[in-house]
Write a structure and sequence with these properties.
By secondary structure, the chain is an alpha/beta fold.
């Protein structure tokens, strides 16, 4: 009986031992697998952690290990910051692209103030001395400065075969005038003897005027029809808008003009927006021959005196000046005086109260007032009143709005 008991217990012990060995093998297998994975990865690389799901009941999960935050790169000191982006404006729904442009017109007026006595420019005026009226309504002056405005001038030169001294003085005077021209000036040149000839039409190129002067070498006739030439010059300038000037460089004598002095003087006085400056030629020759006696000498002296008076009459009737140089060295100073008188302006800028762009004609008027708003008055050294002229355009045409 005892033998049977021993044989039955051995198989049971063997089964328990085998069970313990299996459980131990299952526990050691994951550890060996992890170690094998760690050995298969390259050096310096951390082993991958298995995903750990959050607990079903919520709350924090297990530790996920060390978190590495990348370091921001510092911008160089010389690199400017990025420009701000423009804000995006979105139109309301159903409305297309809409843009708004406000066009506020401005009017610029060049004003010349000349003393009536000697036609010299009157400096030293201030903005509060000016009043600008457009269609009778006073305008507020926003800008004020003294400028030298461009000119539109006709150079009328006597080129006749009477004497070399007259031609020599004419060329020197015309050259001195052309040297003081500026790029914005419009100038034309005409010559006359028995008839007129257009040397250069209106141009802004000073070189054309200088070339035209150099071309005056051999005159055609000895006659000097000054009155007819001046009448034709005024007719040509009537088609030019704005303020114009005629620079007459001549001896002043007239021989066979169809017009008389009274007729041409009447035409000069009726001209609008034209100022005449006269420069006499042959002064040196007249000094050498004046008062030598004899019938011919006396007649010649009377002719020159009459010519001087006629040149003065043309200039004074239009608000210009007359010059009677004796030497060619006086020419630059003479034309510098002419330039100062015709260029010096006061520039006024205002925004019209009538902002309509209808292409209508707006009438302008400029007045001078004192600190109390009364008409401005001037006096000379002897406390006598001085009269002055205000030279400005009488109106302008508004811009036409294009739809």
């Amino acid at each position: 009986m005892s033998t049977l008991r021993l044989s039955n217990s051995r198989p049971r012990r063997f089964s328990v031992a085998m069970l313990l060995i299996a459980v131990a093998a299952l526990a050691i297998a994951p550890i060996n697998q992890v170690q094998a994975q760690a050995q298969s990865q390259p050096a310096g690389q951390q082993p991958q952690q298995p995903d750990q799901a959050a607990p079903e009941a919520g709350g924090p999960g297990a530790d996920s290990g060390v978190i590495v935050v990348p370091k921001k790169k510092e911008a160089p000191a010389d690199v400017p910051p990025p420009a701000p982006t423009a804000p995006k404006i979105k139109n309301p729904e159903g409305m297309g692209a809409v843009s708004l442009r406000v066009d506020v017109p401005e009017v610029t007026v060049d004003v010349g103030v000349l003393l009536e006595k000697n036609r010299s420019f009157l400096p030293g005026l201030k903005p509060e001395n000016f009043r600008v009226y457009e269609d009778g309504a006073e305008q507020k002056v926003l800008g004020f400065k003294r400028v030298e405005a461009p000119i539109t001038a006709l150079l009328l030169c006597e080129f006749a075969a009477n004497s070399y001294y007259f031609i020599y003085d004419m060329r020197n005077a015309a050259w001195a005038f052309a040297q003081q021209l500026r790029p914005q000036d419009y100038v034309a040149m005409m010559t006359f003897d028995m008839r007129t000839q257009i040397v250069t039409d209106f141009t802004q190129d000073k070189r054309q005027i200088l070339q035209g002067i150099n071309m005056l070498q051999i005159p055609g006739f000895s006659e000097s029809n000054l009155f007819d030439a001046l009448y034709e010059s005024l007719d040509r300038l009537d088609r030019v808008q704005g303020r114009k000037y005629i620079i007459v460089i001549a001896s002043g004598r007239d021989t066979f003009s169809k017009l008389t002095f009274d007729k041409i003087l009447q035409r000069v006085k009726a001209s609008r927006d034209v100022t005449i400056f006269t420069v006499s030629t042959g002064g040196a020759m007249r000094v050498m021959t004046e008062g030598r006696g004899g019938m011919n000498g006396a007649i010649r002296d009377m002719d020159f005196l009459q010519a001087d008076n006629e040149m003065r009459a043309f200039a004074n009737s239009t608000g210009g000046k007359s010059f009677f140089p004796r030497f060619s060295g006086e020419m630059p100073e003479i034309f510098q005086d002419i330039n100062q008188n015709i260029r010096s302006k006061y520039q006024l800028v205002y925004r019209p109260t009538n902002a309509k762009q209808d292409g209508s004609w707006r009438k302008l008027r400029v007045a001078l007032v004192d600190e109390e708003g009364k008409p401005l008055r001037f006096q000379d050294e002897k406390h006598k009143p001085l009269k002055y002229d205000i030279i400005a355009r009488d109106g302008y045409r508004a811009k036409q709005e294009v739809e």
